[in-house]
Amino acid sequence: MKLIAIKIFRAGITIWLVVTIAFLILRLSGDPLESLVGDDASQQVVEYYRQKYGFDRPLYHQYLSYFANVLSGDLGVTLQEERNALEVVLEAIPRTLELGFLSLALSLIIGIPLGIVAALHRNKLIDRFTMSFAVLGFSVPNFFLGILLILLFSLWLRLLPSSGTGTFYHLIMPAITLGTSSAGSIARFARSSMLDVLNKSYMRTAAAKGVPRFRRFAWHALPNAAIPIVTIIGFRLGDLVAGSIVTETVFAWPGVGRLLVNAVQTRDLAVVQTILLMVGATMTLANLMVDIAYGWIDPRIRTSADADRK
Amino acid sequence: MTPLLEINDLRVYFDTPRGVVKAVDGVSFKVAPGETLAVVGESGCGKSVTCHSILRLHPSNGRIVAGSISFQQVDLRSLDIPSLESYRGKEIAMIFQDPMTALNPVHTIGGQIAESIMLHRGMNRRDAFGAALRFLEIVGIPEAKRRLTEYPHQLSGGMNQRAMIAMALSCHPKLLIADEPTTALDVTIQAQILELMRQLQREQGMAIILITHDLGVVAEMADNVAVMYSGKIVEQANVEDIFQRPAHPYTVALLESLPRIDRDLDKLRVIEGSVPSPFELPRGCHFTPRCHFATEECRRRSPALEPLEANHQAACLHPQGIAP
Amino acid sequence: MSTASPPEPAAPLLSVSNLVRHFHARRRFSFSAPRPVRAVDDVSFQLWPGDTLGLVGESGSGKSTVGRLLLGIDRPTAGDIRFDGRDIQRLAPKEWRALRRDMQMIFQDPLGSLDPRMTVASQMREPLDIHGMDLPESRNQRVDEMLQWVGLPRDTRSRYPHELSGGQQQRVVVARALIMRPRLVVCDEPVSSVDVSIQAQIINLLVDLRSRLGLTYLFISHDLKVVRHISNRIAVMYLGKLVETGERKAIFEKPLHPYTQALISAIPVPDPSLKRERMILAGEPPSPVNPPSGCRFHTRCSYAMAHCREREPELKAVSASHAVACHLVDSSLNEPVKASSVR
Fold first, then answer.
1. Residue B94 is nearest to which of A208, A223, A298, comparing CB atoms?
2. Is this complex scored with an ipTM above 0.85?
3. Which of B24, C204, C225, C244 is the most interior residue, by most CB within 10 Å?
4. Cβ pairs A/C, distance under 8 A
5. How many domains does chain C contain in total?
6. Are residues C189 and C324 in the same domain?
7. Which pTM was predicted?
8. Going by C-beta distance under 8 Å and a sequence separation of 6 or more, which residues neighbour residue C313?
9. Is B179:B98 a contact under the CB 8 Å cutoff?
């Protein structure tokens, strides 16, 4: 238990660091008012806005008041529409999650079995074939694949809508685009994890006991190979919220990624900061979950933590 | 007495990018019921591959190209894998070198032993765990009940090896193949394990093939000894003859090169050179480059195992100490 | 450690007093004091020039830790280490470098000890270059000389480690260690990872060079057979403590400590006709984190009395060349505890 408390504490520090760094970078990289008001705005207008948003105060002052605001739930106001930044971001999240979960599921369903089959038939044709597929998967850039799919399915075959959201059909291409590269790297990872396990001494012991092939695979190998794979899944979960900036932009998918791109372009500080805070928090949380889950899955960690306590 | 296991002219070759490695090149021996055969040699001599190939557990890039392996008159080479699997762990059991890695870390000790029992003795889960418990007690693991639900990493090396032995014995095998079972253990623990093996052998009446490089262990445990060098058996005899009247120059030199715990030695006899690379095997007898008694004829032909006296054979044209 | 012994001819080359090394598990934000691993707990001994002290023990005995402490690879938690009378923990960096010339080491894994990207010759030259020994021109000669002394052909100098066999690699390690003519060499399991037939080569080599170069060895090993062969004095460690020390003859003719007896008796002898009385220890070695009270060996000792559980025995001399830490050995009697009929 104490161990978990320590991890949570550490997670908190990480999040704080993310927020602070984001704050500093944004403030120090240029005048936020540039894009808000036009080039030809008069000095008075500029000064007015500067004061309104507090950009005229010293940096640490801004920081402290921002921090205080965050803690009390106020994440600032988007410069674009004078709405609550948090609101804006929260609107975009479900869309991103939708896309994210589907593509993650796709990549797992495709990637893990592919990798495992490749490992079981090492160096044979099927291994080389699937691994080439995998490499292709994560080598092809998202935007390229996305545009290719749009060309094929939207413009040529007219089967799927090319952008926007609304129906399940809108979801298919973005999910495939996002999921493909993920599937590729998961396949590679699953393969090496499985190969690693198959080489272990205890697999030979199992064979020497007369354990039939399938059971050796399912009961002896798979649980061991799963441990590193679970960690990867955990990290991917954290990735979900960050979404894929590129894919969302290509498909005009109204998610967090696209929102972030816009916000950076317009120097909409509040939104950028909010998104960073949220991404930082979810990644840290995901890491934390994986950490805890890991300790639960691997008996070596589970029992040594207990032993420590005795 | 019909032998329990009989190996005849076994040849196991490996395909590697650099060429074919003849890891086992014409090995023959017999094991009688209840006896202990020690297969001795240094690394690379082929002793492990020979014994692993009995149950077809040798590495996948190796092929058994020739020879017969018969167990209780059954030709093991002719069996398909599922039939062979009914021998593995049941009639013939194996234990391996490093107990800390030879057991699956994500399953309990009890679970892994019970698996064997359920597989080969058809018991249900509850009975199998009960039997597993009894075997843990037989091999002298204290607090056996607790250990049933513990994981391998929670036990020491010695305890894990005992658990492995329990697992191997759980289906009452007629033959136990032990591959360097004590090499990774401390010497006082080694003594315990060897003692345990001897005791269990007496009680269960099983034969043991003991693979080792430690000649002291051989003297302690073996009834018969086969000395291997570079893929072949160079000498085979009962244990007294091997130590008291070694005939092959390699055996002689090996014995003289050992430091002893029971006496002071002046200088250790050295075998010059090193084990030949499997890709550059010497012509004729493989030991020729390092042999003090090598002649031209030795370089020309590879000698077969010739009987020298009862139960004593050597593959040498100039066996030592025994009149040809 | 000898006490009240006849005057030694020279001062000890190495003097270790009350050496302690505790390892503390890293527990951040912990509220309770963590239990340390008591790897080395109050060890004292001396090495005279020309000695070979065999430091024996099984895993967890602390013998390798002692080796590392002497070489300065690790810092003691407490205790004194003096080389040639100088306290090695209080040396200035320049003096340390000078000490490095006098004190060298040979480890277990030869391939791991050699730089895979340097040729044999450059690795052997390196210490000479670093310490500025000899004239640069004559350094190559030294390298060739050393190669010859360790029995390697001249062309080895341009090879890379991976091109050599295990035995050859270990010879290079020896050559490199000795090229600076050190006075003390700490050998930590130098023959444990080579084949049996190569072992003899390396052992003979070490013995040979010892007399040729007037070396002093601290020979750390779990293999008592090798230690017997090469050492003139033996020190037996158990769970961080010295349980018995003495001259080779004394130790093997009359081992006094039950652990020493068990250790010797546990080693199988390549002679089937010798049916020895085997003293088999019960149980497992306890953990160095939680050593037993009193005498650390009492949990496995068949002769343990109540007293053994309560008080830790001191290492006491029973003769000029023999010391034991055992309550059962009355120093006036100098009688070994009975070793026969023990199970």
1. A208
2. yes
3. B24
4. 4
5. 2
6. no
7. 0.85
8. C295, C325, C326, C327
9. no
